[in-house]
Write a structure and sequence with these properties.
The complex is a heterodimer of chains A (about 375) and B (about 230).
Chain A lengths: L1 E9 L2 E9 L4 E5 L6 H9 L6 E6 L2 E5 L4 E2 L7 E4 L11 H10 L10 H8 L14 H14 L4 E5 L14 H11 L3 E5 L2 H7 L2 E6 L2 E7 H4 L15 E11 L4 E6 L2 E6 L8 E7 L4 E3 L10 E12 L4 E7 L4 E7 H7 L6 E6 L8 E4 L8
Parallel strand pairs in A: 3-9, 3-10, 7-8, 8-9
Antiparallel strand pairs in A: 1-2, 1-4, 4-5, 5-6, 10-11, 12-13, 12-15, 13-14, 15-21, 16-20, 17-18, 17-20, 18-19
Helix pairs in contact in A: 2-4, 3-4
Chain B lengths: L6 H34 L5 H13 L2 H12 L4 H10 L7 H25 L3 H9 L4 H28 L4 H7 L9 H10 L4 H32 L3
Classes of the chains: A alpha+beta (about 375), B mainly alpha (about 230).
Chain lengths: ~375, ~230
């Protein structure tokens, strides 16, 4: 568990963040630029002293301003991957990787040098110098360097921000692998909702120095507060299901609540866990079963809540047998269907609309002895 | 005019090199410390300390030599103690010439080192911290290597300047052949004697070549180190 309750004032700006997040897992600090994300991470690392507050990781007090406890960064065993990588220019890639490793001799070792280089694909880069690396390679080295210091928590401050969008795939799958294979607790700072959806297990929503919402991804995806940070087109519920069938053409069938959902997803075998975001704008609601449509998915559920959304539109929450689907329809459509909480509806989802919004979650393998 | 150096000329050259080397070896660690204090430490009297470090740049070298005599002379507060405790005598010795040279070239060295320290990315030190490096560890493994171009530049410049230090050396260590008569002192002595014109010219050319070589060498060295750091 990561217990955070920290206050920092900087001129006009005040960051006041409090949340308890489960570990292991990926805790996303999500918010716009200037919402206080980096300030908060710097306090977690101990590089910035809070004005007041407490910080606990796995039962250990790292900061407690009232008890005058402030564990030095070099003794926290918290790895930090900076936005700009910050590799040591006078050392080779191997020198950089070994830097943290050498200083973690007395810490419990959970990952070895060759595991890191293998996992992050660094084997061929070891003799290079930082200025000879691409942005993605640099971030992978920074990640490896932090991992080899055997941290009990890994902080990642927008590690993809300085990399071209097209090159982010050089790093993202490695982060997924860390989450799923190593179960290193991570705090992932981002202002990109797509990254958060793909990586996070827990979201802390920050805005102007205040925590608007904190909870598991599925829960926060339904939070009306999310609308204050992401654009209307990004709103949609996040659901997790198990693959029950694949057809070889890139379509997979998920068991979801009491129904089934066809999603567009490359390579997930039967039994794999998959997270999918169903964008509210892509959902069609019907009060009767519909025939003769190309839509692949019709989930039967019950309207639980209708809330005003953007002008002339409403957000409808539909419980489809446990999971909740969010649908955005116009106020006129709601009036014409006379939708009210408690009504039975079919939520129609085009399988194609899930392309790029469905991610495989790897299970955690048994811990190595 | 022969290209082969006479034994007096060789003595002067050897002494100049020895004095400059010893002066750099002695003052380099102190210059790094002074640069660190001036860049990173915040304390009352910092401006005064800064001025004090740079004083030899603006004082007449003879005055510096005279102050050294007062302090390090056999009856001076430091000189007396050194003599009683360790049997060390500095005035009129090669070591004394090196001390006078070190004091005179100190500001040059501090300036170059300070500049390079100001350019060290504090973010890299923070990164080293999160990787478990304590203060001294960080300084030795991150800050110091990144300052290397400046340290080298400072050391070589101070060395080249030290080859030619005159006023402070002659005041504090006198002009003793084979002991403290370095190149500039030999040049001065030659100019004072009626038949010394040719010797003076030869020594002047030698000083010129040494200085030029030193400065060029410094530039090349710094470039090489910078390339290794990827800048």
């Amino acid at each position: 568990m990561l217990r955070v309750s920290l206050v920092k004032r900087r001129g006009e700006f005040t960051l006041s963040a409090a949340f308890n997040a489960p570990t292991p897992g990926v805790i996303a600090l999500f918010g716009r630029s200037g919402s206080g994300k980096t300030t908060l991470v710097d306090m977690l690392a101990g590089l910035l002293a809070p004005d007041e507050g407490e910080l606990q990781l796995a039962g250990t007090v790292l900061t407690d301003t009232r008890a005058h406890i402030a564990v030095a960064p070099e003794r926290r065993r918290i790895g930090y991957v900076f936005q700009d990588a910050r590799l040591f220019p006078h050392l080779t890639v191997e020198g950089n990787l070994r830097y943290g490793e050498k200083r973690a001799k007395h810490a419990p070792q959970y990952i070895r040098f060759d595991e890191v280089t293998g996992l992050l694909g660094l084997g061929t880069l070891l003799r290079r110098r930082p200025h000879e690396l691409s942005g993605g390679e640099r971030q992978r080295v920074a990640l490896g360097r932090a991992l080899l210091s055997q941290p009990q928590l890994l902080l990642l401050d927008e590690p993809l921000a300085s990399i071209d969008v097209a090159r982010r795939e050089e790093v993202l799958p490695y982060l997924e692998a860390l989450r799923d294979w190593l179960s290193v607790p991570m705090v992932y700072v981002s202002h990109q909702f797509e990254e958060v959806l793909r990586l996070a297990t827990y979201i802390v929503l920050l805005e102007a120095g205040v925590v608007l919402a904190a909870g598991p991804v599925e829960e926060v995806s339904l939070s009306p507060q999310l609308r204050r940070v992401v654009s209307p087109d990004m709103v949609g519920s996040v659901l997790t299901g198990i693959v029950t069938a694949v057809d070889g053409s890139g379509a997979a069938e998920l068991a979801l609540g009491s129904g089934k959902l066809q999603v567009s997803l490359g390579d997930a075998p039967v039994g794999a866990r998959v997270r999918v975001q169903l964008l509210a704008r892509d959902i069609i609601l019907a009060t009767q079963p519909i025939q003769g449509l190309s839509v692949r998915n019709a989930l039967l559920g019950t309207v639980t809540e209708i809330s005003p959304d953007e002008p002339a539109a409403v957000l409808v929450k539909v419980d489809v047998g446990g999971p909740i689907v969010l649908a955005r329809i116009t106020e006129n459509a709601r009036a014409a269907l006379r939708l009210r909480p408690g009504d039975a509806v079919w939520a129609l989802v085009k399988a194609v609309s899930t392309r790029g919004h469905a991610f495989r979650l790897f299970g955690t393998p048994p811990r190595r002895g | 005019m022969t290209l082969i150096l006479s034994s007096a000329e060789l003595d002067a050259l050897r002494l100049s090199l020895e004095v400059a080397t010893r002066s750099v070896a002695f003052s380099l660690p102190l210059a790094v410390l002074a640069a660190w204090i001036l860049t990173r430490a915040r304390f009352p009297g910092r401006a005064l300390f800064d001025a004090f470090v740079h004083l030899p740049l603006v004082l007449p070298p003879v005055a510096v030599g005279y102050v050294l005599l007062l302090l390090f002379g056999t009856r001076g507060p430091i000189g007396g103690w050194l003599r009683a405790r360790f049997g060390i005598q500095l005035p009129f010795t090669t070591a004394g010439a090196a001390l006078a040279t070190a004091v005179m070239t100190f500001p040059l060295m501090v300036r170059a080192i300070r500049l390079s320290l100001e350019n060290v990315d504090r973010g890299l030190e923070a990164a080293a911290r999160t990787l478990g490096a304590g203060a001294l560890d960080r300084f030795l493994t991150v800050t110091l290597p990144l300052m290397l171009p400046g340290i080298l530049a400072g050391a070589v410049t101070a060395f080249a300047a030290g080859l030619g230090e005159f006023g402070a050396v002659i005041t504090f260590a006198a002009n003793i052949p084979g002991v403290t008569r370095t190149l500039p002192l030999a040049l001065y002595t030659a100019m004072q004697s009626p038949e010394g014109e040719q010797l003076a010219l030869r020594l002047a050319i030698l000083s010129f070549l040494l200085g030029l070589g030193g400065l060029l060498g410094a530039e090349l060295l710094v470039r090489r180190v910078r390339r290794r750091l990827g800048r």
